[in-house]
Design a protein that fits this description.
The chain has about 190 residues and is α+β, with helices and mostly antiparallel strands. It folds into 2 domains: about 30 residues, no CATH class; about 140 residues, Calycin beta-barrel core domain (Lipocalin). It contains 3 helices and 9 strands. It has an 8-stranded antiparallel beta barrel with strand order 1-2-3-4-5-6-7-8. A hairpin with a 5-residue loop joins strand 2 and strand 3. The longest helix has 22 residues. The N and C termini lie far apart (about 75 Å).
């Protein structure tokens, strides 16, 4: 005979406790096995409004920004061939570093997905997953949740606005425990 949890009634108190514990672990594993829904972008990005300078407020640490200690900016401008020029700058221990790349809008994405390349033939996903209606802040990530940037048109964000950007990332399943904030000393 089994009780409601599937454990044998005759197993005694210790046996039933062990059985119940295993049941909890197996249910927890089943819940943990549920996949987080795929990352979604904002419905559309008006490229003309998105172009210009963005200040990095926070990011997930990554190899290609390992020397950046602060004052991180990204400038986007339209090239003659219709692609986007990307100029990233940051302060390192040795002065200012910069990297120039190109981006193209992914067809059918409403402008919310870009493929960015700094080193041909390698390119990466750049998805706008959060964007204020006035284009004052943006949250950018990738479909695997390995990359995340919180960007602002100004070097600092009010805390309530920052929380809106953070919430946009959380809603997409990003674990923000690895988020690192950027020191911006430039005005």
């Amino acid at each position: 005979m089994r009780d409601a949890g599937g454990c044998r009634a005759g197993w005694g108190k210790a046996g039933r406790a062990l059985c119940a514990g295993l049941l909890v672990v197996s249910l927890g594993s089943a819940w943990a096995g549920e996949e987080t829904p795929p990352v979604q972008t904002v419905p559309a990005v008006e490229l003309e409004r998105y172009l210009g300078r963005w200040y990095e407020i926070a990011r997930f640490p990554m190899f290609f920004q390992r020397n950046c200690v602060g004052d991180v900016t990204a400038d986007y401008s339209l090239r003659e061939d219709g692609r986007i020029r990307v100029l990233n700058r940051c302060r390192s221990d040795k002065g200012m570093d910069e990297a120039e790349g190109t981006a193209r809008v992914v067809e059918g994405s409403g402008g919310a997905k870009l493929r960015v390349s700094f080193f041909w033939p390698f390119s990466g996903d750049y998805w706008v997953i959060g964007l204020s209606p006035d284009y004052r802040w943006a949250v950018v990530g990738d479909p695997e949740r390995k990359y995340l940037w919180i960007l602002s048109r100004t070097p600092a964000m009010p805390l309530d606005v920052l929380e809106k950007a953070r919430q946009a990332a959380r809603e997409q399943g990003y674990d923000l425990s690895g988020l690192r904030y950027t020191e911006q000393r430039m005005e």
